[in-house]
Amino acid sequence: MTQGMVLWFTGLPNSGKTTISRLVSKQLESMGYPVERLDSDELPRSMTKDLSPDWTTRQKQKCTNLIYIAKLLYKYNVNVLIASVGRFDEMRKQARTHIPSFVEIYLKCPLNVRLQRDDKMKYERYPDTIHYYEESCNPEITIESDKLSSEEAVSMIIRYLIEQGYITEPDGRAPHNME
User: How many domains does the chain contain in total?
Assistant: First the structure.
């Protein structure tokens, strides 16, 4: 592959975005692909600082920054993995519009499981906004992260990327459905 791609791992907090994107990153790197992860939990505060007193505006600004960085890296054939809630469907649609090789991966997970995984106490610290999420309308991949292991989710994603021609089989062969 000579062109990059952007994978956006979206879903409510503690649905598995960071864990699964890290594993996909490792898998792609082991296959020889250049990868950069943009995790909204790990970005420098200077990139996601409170640019507005309004929560909605801040969330959109954070996504705008992520999309901008992803576009820059994509332009130089880097495979970008965004791990961010991306609370507004319009922001994910904007990324899809501006990035030709865009894959939305929706990690669906019930509240009781997300609460069990909440070691950072996000659900207690942000009770007014933590649950807000516009569910993905047409993600390329939906993963029920309470039903699949992280390894099974990674296999599902890699298989999709091969089948769609974003990457080649580990042995270098073109995917079976490609000419």
Answer: 1
